[in-house]
Amino acid sequence: MEGAVQLLEVANLEVVYHDVVLVLRGISFSVPDGQIVALLGANGAGKTTVLRAISGLLDVHHGDITKGEVRVDGKATHRLTPAAIVDRGVTQVMEGRRVFAEFTVEENLRVGAHTNPDEREENLARVFDLFPVLKDRRKHTAGYLSGGEQQMLAMGRGLMSDPRFLLLDEPSLGLAPLLVQQIRDLIVEINRQGTAILLVEQNATMALSIAQHGYVMETGKIVMDKPADELMRDEDVQEFYLGLGGAGGERKSFREVKHYKRRKRWLS
Amino acid sequence: MTEFLQATVNGIATGAIYGLLALGFVIIYKSSEVLSFAQSGLMILGAFWVVYFSSVLALNFWLAVLLGVLLSALIGVAIERSMLRPMVGKPAFSVAILTIGLNIALTVIGFDLIGVEIRSLGDPWGIQKVEIGQLVVSQKDVATIVASVIVVGALLAFFRYSRFGLAMRATAIDQETALAQGIPVARVFAVAWAIAAGLATIAGVFLGAGTGVTAAIGVRAIRALPAAVIGGLDSIPGAIVGGLIVGLAEAYTVAYQAEYLGFLGQNFSTAVAYVVMFFVLLVRPYGIFGTREVVRV
Ligand SMILES: Nc1ncnc2c1ncn2[C@@H]1O[C@H](COP(=O)(O)OP(=O)(O)OP(=O)(O)O)[C@@H](O)[C@H]1O
Ligand SMILES: [Mg+2]
């Protein structure tokens, strides 16, 4: 049985908004412990909705799971409160950073530690280690940070709960190429430290360059499900999601994948 | 000059009471976006509990206040759980009306429990005065000011330094993001009501101290609403400042209006809070410290 396996699973998930708008039509995929899994798709495909269903945030948007399950290590979590889901080790970093603008950097991180106050200092040290800029700016007001810094803060805040599964919703959105690189390297490092990552991205090149496995969504369905390197070579994906130009650059980042790939940790 | 200073001390004391009530209103509003008009009802019921513990059970006054505040806080939680929780996501206006009904219910129950007599709180101040230089002020006013400073200071420290206080502020800024961090937002709402009910009880104690608790204190408590509007419905410092402005405006009106604006009648001080509110809103639509639109209809 899958129950013994350490993973985050979404099984046959159907989500409806406002009782009428069917947005997810039977989605299934899994994020094994310790891996990076990319979830790709065009605008409106339903990627964010998948993340909301996992982290329990559908309620806020008048959404409902009408079918299917979300499981962590084989146990259903889709009827739990967001707080209980964070407690099970699943934390979402929402699209658009959503830092508490009037809080300081440190206060933002303290909020992230809400479910895990006992290990706050260790986690704070780890976050400052990953993102030294946050340490330098710890007393600064979060709203005045640059976009890249705010993204780091949002990720750092998510890590304060010491999640086993980190859900990232378009972390590269609106960032300059150099910063996208930096965020990508940070995701790899976070993963190397033992956190599995579900990476939702419009920037498929970036996502596939670090993921082990990728899923492509289209209007509420998974239309492709392949190892990341195969997806990267897939003609359709190249055409629709990787764009036409910059093929040379893509290849380069693809080679880096090999370099970053780690021993899979199926059992922790 | 002495008259002015005395009116000022009196105004600050009354204003502090309005401030405590307005603070409860603001804390509920910031946490849950519910406009609650139940503060005066919570205050009457809370004051009754203190009367009950202090006069009927003959407990020590401070113990009675403590028990009254705790019991009121529990009632606040129960109200939130049973009446407000099912209203999450319902139109803000409907929920506000619901709290008006709740206020009527609490007031009626409170009046019924208090009865027609004046009920003594058994407070240590009575109607005694203290002399500070030439100034003669009532002990109760001094106690009100001191207690309010302590209570507000403790509350601000709670919001600033404690884990749950921070969680409440985070919820006020962005509920969904707070949820995503694992903050139990439902508990934040409940705690907001507990704090509001506790503050209302303390306000009731100081409104009723000295003269005793009567049905009339409920009428005065309603002036906490213009105080909250003046300060800005979503501002904690605003609640205090708004309370003080209303308290001072009333005290000065009582002291000088008969002399200079006698034609306005004898009880104009009861209306002055709304006059001030009118002028503040002309200049600052969201109140002095307020930042956001309240209800978009
Ligand atoms: N609260 C809501 N009520 C109704 N429909 C919604 C709601 N939120 C999202 N939708 C719809 O659900 C569909 C999927 O939205 P979702 O945000 O999950 O897509 P996405 O893949 O994350 O898109 P993007 O790349 O633009 O972020 C869209 O058609 C969207 O309009
Ligand atoms: Mg999205």
Quick overview:
Chain A is built from 11 helices and 10 strands. Chain A has 268 residues and is α/β, with parallel strands linked by helices.
Note the main attributes of this structure.
heterodimer; A: 268 residues; alpha/beta; Rossmann fold; 6-stranded mixed β-sheet; 4-stranded antiparallel β-sheet; 11 helices; 38% helix; 26% strand; B: 297 residues; mainly alpha; two-stranded antiparallel ribbon; 2 strands; 3% strand; binds adenosine-5'-triphosphate; binds magnesium ion
Proportion of residues in extended strands of chain A:
25-35%
Tally of separate helices of chain A:
11
Mean pLDDT of chain B: 90
- Order of H and E elements of chain B: HHHHEEHHHHHHHH
Provide the gyration radius of chain A in Å. Answer: 18 Å
Query: What proportion strand of chain B?
Result: under 5%
- Note the overall shape of chain B: globular
How many domains, in number, for the residues of chain B? 1
Count up the helices of chain B: 12
Main-sheet strand order of chain B equals: 1-2
How many domain modules of chain A? Answer: 2
Mean of residue pLDDT values of chain A: 87
General description of the model:
- Chain A is an alpha/beta fold and 268 residues long.
- Chain A is built from 11 helices and 10 strands.
- The longest helix of chain A has 16 residues, at 177-192.
- Chain A is globular, with a radius of gyration of 18 Å.
- With 297 residues, chain B is mainly α.
- Chain B has one domain (2-221).
- Chain B is 71% helix and 3% strand.
- Chain B is globular.
- The interface between A and B is medium-sized, with 30 and 19 residues.
- The structure holds adenosine-5'-triphosphate and magnesium ion.
